[in-house]
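User: Could you go from structure to sequence for me? I need the amino acid at each position, not a summary. Structure tokens:
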């Protein structure tokens, strides 16, 4: 292997890397932000893509989040890569417990339900294994879907505007920098040949 370690990492080092990466915990979010900012699309397209990914991440349909984000992004003329990055950044294993708990509570509040079935429990593993969506709809999916709409709307609208203005400013600064470099190159043609 080309980039393999000479001495393989031991258990302690792997555990330390898992808990506290060598490059830090802020590197992955910074990478995602820079990846979104550097997309070659209009600020509106990038912002719509990110907003679509975030909106869809609130829904309980985990297996098809990317497909739903692509469809929403296409319908509102957004960027597909930005939609995928919005899905991946917002809907991940660290945020899903918060998302599910929030949508569950909001859904029950909006549907005016105290408890789904008092005195009864729902065996989610068996329902998912046997794919009884009809039995799963009323106690689980319906409140989560209804409860996902308000926070999805709020977060996607807020992050649409935040992304739009950030991308527009970044692209403006980048365009000015490239224009300055081009002017410097044109004013000193001899410096280029040396």
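Assistant: Here is the amino acid at each position, in order:
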């Amino acid at each position: 292997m080309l980039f393999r370690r000479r001495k393989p990492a031991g258990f302690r080092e792997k555990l330390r890397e898992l808990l506290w990466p060598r490059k830090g915990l802020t590197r992955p979010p910074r990478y995602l932000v820079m990846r979104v900012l550097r997309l070659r699309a209009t600020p509106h397209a990038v912002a719509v893509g990110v907003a679509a990914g975030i909106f869809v991440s609130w829904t309980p349909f985990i297996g098809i989040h990317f497909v739903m984000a692509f469809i929403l992004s296409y319908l509102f003329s957004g960027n597909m890569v930005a939609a995928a990055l919005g899905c991946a950044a917002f809907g991940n294993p660290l945020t899903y417990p918060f998302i599910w708990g929030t949508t569950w509570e909001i859904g029950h509040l909006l549907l005016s339900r105290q408890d789904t079935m008092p005195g009864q429990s729902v065996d989610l593993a068996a329902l998912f294994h046997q794919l009884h969506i009809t039995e799963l709809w009323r106690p689980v999916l319906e409140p989560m879907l209804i409860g996902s709409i308000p926070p999805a709307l709020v977060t996607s609208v807020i992050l649409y505007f935040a992304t739009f203005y950030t991308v527009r400013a970044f692209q403006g600064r980048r365009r000015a920098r490239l224009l300055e470099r081009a002017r410097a190159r044109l004013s000193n043609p001899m410096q280029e040949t040396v």
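One structural detail worth keeping in mind: The chain has one domain: 28-167.
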